[in-house]
Amino acid sequence: MKKTFIPEEFREKYSKIMGKESDTFFEYCKIKMPKSIWINSLKIKPEILVKELREKEWILEKLFHENAYSLKEVTRPGQSEQFKQGLFNVQEKSSMLPALALDPKKGETVLDATAAPGNKTLQLSCLMNGTGKIVCVEKNVQRFKSLNFNVRKFGMKNVIAKRMDLLEAKRKNIFDKVLLDAPCSSEGLVRKNFDALKEWGFGLVERKAELQKKLLQKSLQLLKVNGELVYSTCSLSPEENEGVISTAIEEGNAELVGVKFSDFKTRDGLKEYNGTKFSEGIEKCVRIYPQDNDSQAFFVAKIRKTST
């Protein structure tokens, strides 16, 4: 069996962060993630699809939303006819939480800032019941193709896909809500890909953090005053999370909003790391450790824009 690659620097860093829980944390890093799905309620009622899949002897267990289910003993859900028809999407359960935290309403104008391949875009479209407008942006050519494909496949009629660099956007104060699932060092993917940390290093984390700060600043410019933004990563590095959020809060035109998820364990944001103290209220951010819910690692923060 192939072993999970964990760099020594990564092990040292998270031994300090996790403390007495470090052994459990690293053990979960080596275990493959369980599968889960998001039901596409734009095409089918969740209860109808669940009944249909259970008749195929699929073992499904409802998670924290009527569209979200865990799968057991289903090895290749992506090869099913229901998936090919766009009736559900295979999506890791932690990665569903940012869209739920944003909680978009029917008729709103929403930006999915770095959207490919469109998993969270589908969630937003379902939560809005296909109403309003979602603008989803992706810079990379190949990733944009996958985004466009999924917009069509899942029938997201309220979605406009744009291939562009978000940092080049000129307009301001136009979106009711923004989801920024930022490009990151992808530490959380170690449970999906045994070699996910092959390119990991402090330099990578620092480069990603600088990009994330720019993307968050631009996203806040695009957000209306009193609008809400959710920032997320599949990394646990404080540099990419609390550090990025603190920089934005210290600009003085935004405040943190508390985030709660039912039936899902979360931890508070770190108040300090490596001698650096973060902004007041940073504990309102949410850290998701793999051992708490047998999930991917994730970070989620919700921000309200208070002024221009």
What report would you give on this structure?
With 308 residues, this protein is of the alpha/beta class. The protein has a domain at 93-305: Rossmann fold (3-Layer(aba) Sandwich), CATH 3.40.50. It is built from ten helices and 15 strands. α1 crosses α2 and α8 (202-222) runs parallel beside α9. It is globular, with a radius of gyration of 19 Å.
Index terms:
15 strands; 9-stranded mixed sheet; 4-stranded antiparallel sheet; tRNA methyltransferase; RNA binding; globular; 308 residues; Rossmann fold; alpha/beta; Methyltr_RsmF_N
The top-level CATH class of the domain at 93-305 is: Alpha Beta
Oligomer: single chain
What structural class should be given to the helix and strand makeup?
alpha/beta
Largest sheet: 9 strands, mixed
- Along the chain, the helix and strand elements come as HHEHEEHEHEHEHEEHEHEEEEEHE
Radius of gyration: 19 Å
**For the residues shown, what is the average pLDDT?**
96
- C-alpha termini separation: 54 Å
Q: What level of helicity do the residues show?
A: 25-40%
Q: What overall form do the CA principal axes indicate?
A: globular
User: Strand content of the residues, in percent?
Assistant: 15-25%
The CATH architecture name of the domain at 93-305 reads 3-Layer(aba) Sandwich
CATH superfamily of the domain at 93-305: Vaccinia Virus protein VP39
CATH fold-type name of the domain at 93-305: Rossmann fold
Low-confidence stretches: none
Number of strands: 15
Domain SAM-dependent MTase RsmB/NOP-type: 25-306
GO molecular function: RNA binding; RNA methyltransferase activity; S-adenosylmethionine-dependent methyltransferase activity
InterPro entries: Methyltr_RsmF_N, MeTrfase_RsmB-F_NOP2_cat, MeTrfase_RsmB-F_NOP2_dom, Nop2p, RCMT, SAM-dependent_MTases_sf
Keywords: Cytoplasm, Methyltransferase, RNA-binding, S-adenosyl-L-methionine, Transferase
